[in-house]
Amino acid sequence: MDADRVARVLDRHDILDCLTRFSRGMDRFDRDLLLSAFHPDAVIAAGDFVGGPSDLYEWASALHEKGQVATHHNLLNHTCEIDGETAHSETYYLFVARNRDETNWMAGGRYIDRLERRDGSWRIVVRINVIEWSSIVPAMPLPFADVPDIHDNGAPSRSKADPSYQRPLVNRRERHNPLRAV
């Protein structure tokens, strides 16, 4: 594999990592992580919001805190054109949320981004959020909610208390195979 191709693959991977930081930062209400996806002078257009990264975090986290108990910003198809220190990407997303009224909200669309590599770091400088569909889905009970030790490894949280931040990751639940239970 030639060096230029390896460099393009690494750049593309760094760009996808950047987009993932945004999604995880939003879902965990991790301001620093979300902001790490943007250069400070970035402009984001999402819904009725148009502004910079810090204001985006404040707006979006308030919106999600008011309406949902959990959110998942899932990244799907991803294309990326890299030209030197600038890249343009289109990333399909599926947004899923458990609303406070116990319904589930789903929406799909695309993040269209211009990124720049500055000081060796790829970050977003322009983001346009194109929302293409939305739906409310009836809720069902969460599976396994009646398992007594289900949260011994940590309960889902929109903070750094979430199990995904645990280092080192360890299991605190007793071994149990329901097929072998008497």
Automatic annotation (TrEMBL):
Ranges for region Disordered: 151-182
Domain called SnoaL-like: residue spans: 8-127
CDD domains: NTF2_like
Pfam families, per database record: SnoaL_4
Record's protein name: SnoaL-like domain-containing protein
Annotated source species: Mycobacterium botniense
